[in-house]
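Support case: user asked for a sample of complex input and structure output to validate their parser. Sending the pair below.
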Amino acid sequence: MKALIALEDGTIFEGRSFTGSGETSGEIVFNTGMSGYQELLTDPSYKGQIVTMTYPLIGNYGVNPEDMESDRVQVEAFLIKEYNAIPSNFRATGTLADFLKKDNILGVEGIDTRALTRHIRNAGALKGIVSTEDLDPKSLIQKAKNSPGLVGRDLVREVTCAEPYGWKDNQPAPGSNFSTAAPGKYKVVAYDFGLKYNQLRLLAERNCSVQVVPCTATADEILAMKPDGVFLSNGPGDPAGIPGIVDNIRALFGKTPIFGICLGNQLLGLAYGGTTYKLKFGHRGVNQPVKDLLTGKIEITSQNHGFCVDSTTLNPDDIELTHINLNDKSVEGMRHRKYPIFSVQYHPENAPGPHDSLYLFDRFIDMMQP
Amino acid sequence: MPKRTDIKKILIIGSGPIIISQACEFDYSGTQAVKALKEEGYEVILINSNPATIMTDPEIADRTYIEPITPEMVAKIIERERPDALLPTLGGQTALNTAIKVAELGVLDKYGVELLGANIAVIKKAEGRDSFRDAMRKIGLKVPESAIIHTIEEAKAASEQIGFPIIVRPSFTLGGTGGGIAYNSQELDEFCKAGLDLSMNSEVMLERSLLGWKEYELEVMRDKADNVVIICSIENVDAMGVHTGDSITVAPAQTLTDREYQEMRNAAIAIMREIGVETGGSNVQFAVNPKDGELMIIEMNPRVSRSSALASKATGFPIAKIAAKLAVGYTLDEIPNDITRETMAAFEPTIDYCVVKIPRFTFEKFPEADDFLTTAMKSVGETMAFGRTFKEAFQKGMRSLEIGVSGFGADPKFNLESMDQQDLENGLRKPNSKRFFQVFEALRRGMSVERIYEISFIDPWFLHNFKQIVEMESRIREMGFNGLDHDFLQEVKQFGYSDRQIAFLTGTSEEDVWELREKLAVQPVYKLVDTCAAEFEAYTPYYYSTYEVENEARESTGRKVMILGGGPNRIGQGIEFDYCCVHAAFALKEMGIESIMVNSNPETVSTDYDTSDKLYFEPLTREDVLHIIKTEKPDGVIVQFGGQTPLNLAVPLAKAGVPILGTSPDSIDRAEDRKRFQQFLHKLNLLQPENGTAQTADEALVIATKIGYPVVVRPSYVLGGRAMRIVYNEKDLAAYMNSAIDVSPDRPILIDKFLKDAVEIDVDAISDGENTIIGGIMQHIEEAGIHSGDSACVLPPHSISKEMIETIKSATRAMAAELKVKGLMNIQFAVKANVLYILEVNPRASRTVPFVSKATGVPLAKLATKVMMGKTLPELGLTEEVVVAHYAVKEAVFPFDRFDNVDTLLGPEMKSTGEVMGMDVCLGLAFAKSQLAAGQKIPTEGNVLLSMRHSDKPAIVPVAKKIIALGFNILATRGTAKILAENGVACTSVHKISEGRPHILDKIQDKQIQWIVNTSLGTRTTEDAYTIRRAALNYHLPYTTTIAGAESMVKAIGTMQQESIEAKSVQEYFE
């Protein structure tokens, strides 16, 4: 089935739907990872975004129940070069097409994804629309222009959990105040801004009992649970568009160790008094080099972000830059000089991506030592 | 960390001659490394015995030793040069093994030479099977159940624990020589005997066979700050059991989820750390159980490898260059990525295409060998292709192979429609060089993917992609030519179909399809290979074609010239031609002309992105080349440097209106076309052996009878003497004509009088159309009848009269003038009874151009390029022939030890894979060096076995006398012994095998024979003679198959008894 992709700047790409008909809009971004499409599709940080893969052959290894990073597909649509319908992998339990269809997500193949990627690289992330229903380029371009986009939008509310849950047996168990969480040496409250399950898996592996709370939880509610540490997750959209959360985070300073990832890092930046800005086309992939300024070591990281903390707006007396991106020198990690708070812009929980940065979870555990 | 300043002078060891498992990739890596180190201000000393390499060009390293790569020679060079450090990780297994031996001699300690990249302990830990296994277990990684054995008895005991099938792998050998899969105790016995002998430390590993497991490789780099990155993942299409060099491989890995890929990545990093590779690139091989994902480590190479070359070309990340910089102390974050300029080498390349590598086999050259692929590598070259899908890349790869097919199926060649089903299934089960044609046929017959997987273990993912190609073939047939509309044709091209395939399926011609595509605007676009999937802008114009929307090719203004490369290495067309192409690019750069390289061979220097101004990694077919020409609009195309591949394109390209630079296609045709060539020689009053051209067997018999036997027969338009034979009688000729028909269907068979006992001469010359300068005259050591590529030769000639040399020179000039040669030309002469015959004229670069250039210090290919661009030889300062005050000997290197049951006799069909050069002011020493460099031992004392064919018996007498004078004893077979005795030469008679024991083999096994001289007719005359030669090969005994070869060896031994072999750099020869 023919599909058109229209960008707000008037560019049109053509493809074929491999998941049936539909129409959807979002910000179009590219991801350069060569593996890990299932993890990426279920990463809530992609809420509001249409993702194109630079790697052309997708679907090769199917999908399986273990590689879920949330309970559903989160991207708005998935654009690829060639869909491989017959998977080959011992863990595969289904095909990518069925997986997308189940959540009514459009998958489109046959696109010159390299041309699309180059276009985004030069023009920056753009609003776009994908449709099999309306094949009139003019109308689609207008729709793309009218679509909401990401800037200033609070997408966190759309992906955060409705009810608190504990993490037990590698899955969510609804319940509050650690009532359903598997027991552990450290009590960690995880703020769900759109978290990925692997963050919880890694904490649980490190002897943490994990209580997940929605983004609406207040600092008082969290402190009332007497956590050993608070985890700030990743999430979609513009950190500046999320009201209320920053105050709650600031209220936790000095009361408990805090570890932030991605959106968590940006929210900490805002809570420190800094500002964030939108990158031209973001960092999305599993090959981003990051330098740990404390050790000089380089780690290859998994990344998915379109916004970034502006290091010039941080007070160097309070905040120390700990990690930078080697490609564009942007902020990849910070720590507070007085309080036990640290964060990174990338995804040390990987899934997908290299396992080079797992030490950060250990660092969080060390911070929670009595 | 900045670069080290405590070291100033670095020695690099090259990999020597091209052999199976060590090809041009180490010229690519060595050249990159030398350049990178010089760029950093280090003084670089190089040793490599292979003159056909770019790395041994005198301007690449500071001091270049074209000397045998032996521990003793390296020790001499170290003593002479006193380098601060030795970098052993860029010259393949040869360099690594040599470095170990040099260290064991105590030379490194004595002169305070530091090993860079990997020290001895690291190399031993990675390469010793026991130590590697222990290391893997220590870090919690699995290795297949195995045992290390040192005797046959140990092997038997171990096999009971491991269970059959068992993989037999000798330690410390090249490319798994001598290994194999043993299915029973008898086979185990055979493999172990051979393996123990080949292993440098008499050590063989027996290992649980993982037959049917999936095979993967990761290319890893580490710097001294312990930063580790993965450059590329590779998945083998052929499952475990086939050597990775013989497997079709794909980058990146296709059927791994991120979880499994990361597990592999973690393992690779842990291995780098545990083995302790300090800096540089390594390669780790994995096996994965397709049923449950169980991961096993197969091996790791603590050095740059063939796969590193592949990974470099597949990703654009220059592994060897970066490895060299890491070796001198830089860290990955300090080295810029040349392609993006704004980012650093500290990252992991990501690719947005699919790359397929396909090995090129050469079983047709060794018909006695079993076409069976195992853990010992047998392919002689490889080709690589890019596509935006696997199907596209695979089909492009198939047509890049240049075996006469235009893709996967849709081609009359290798049509297996009539193959018996049982034979077909046997083929699928038993990996062989034609298996992918069998897979095609199985799918065409409708065999299920499941069934094909069950017997071939080729992963269903690949099979499904193959199936889609087969299904597309039926669709094209159904549609017919008139049904080809824009959208369908675009889809067909996206499947990688060539116009020839489409023409075949629609009963039209390649030109018809081309025209239709022009009309429908179905045209390729070019995409960049940029290391980063377009995330950053790329500055290096490194392209491949595909059928999509956006074209990234940037047409440039100014003068530009396209160079067509040679495609995959094969016997007869190898690194020598790549060397010439690279020189053409260098020459164009010097002239300020843009160079555009087209090639499909990932091992080469020509496909390095910084060799030429633009690089198109594409198949060398008419269609693919014309597309690039259409895009780039070059002022001209150079076809005379890449060997037969581009030469075959000269006429079709010229017909399409493409300007061919240099000698005109018409002149090329005049030299190649039999009839026209005869007229040409006649006009110049030059002689050729009596000859004729036959199109049928009957015609051939008539001609041969007229000329008189023996005759040389061969198909026209071939390289490397493919299917060339000396035929002694009518019966053999009839048999040949019957078998030769498919060699070159629309081209006739050439028949020449065989000039027995003539001396062969090779001449390379350069001409600007007006002036002709002889580049070099080479006298073959072996007599006529042995392919010039297989024959050793001496420059300058050592036993040709002055008058004859003048005759040769004037004949060369006359021919160059008559053909209006612009560029290079090569002539093969024969001298018999003081009469000069012309055997062949090739108005193009020859295999000997690099050898002549190295021997004389004149860069012929570079000068020829400038001539083609309009310069005259006087303008280039070349007005007279160079006279050298030394001898250079070229010796060929053969792959016989790779193929069971193959005779080592030489003949008119070329069989060598590579060459070495020995240079010295003394001819004997030059020859000795060439033998040592070729891996031949030079006997110093003991017994020499002489066994001559009847006609050679008188000629051996003076040689035998010299052998005795050198202090050897002579053993001889009965007939030879009789002649020797009659002529007063003392010798002991030994039994031939058929004469009862103890016979020759017993003597060989008892190490009572140190050198064998055995001549025979050009066919496998007697089983006895064959068995002797194979035994010599298996026991690594020096053996000689011609009288002339024996004479040269005698000269070498004699000189070596008086003088010692010394090292001298090429720069010193020409100071």
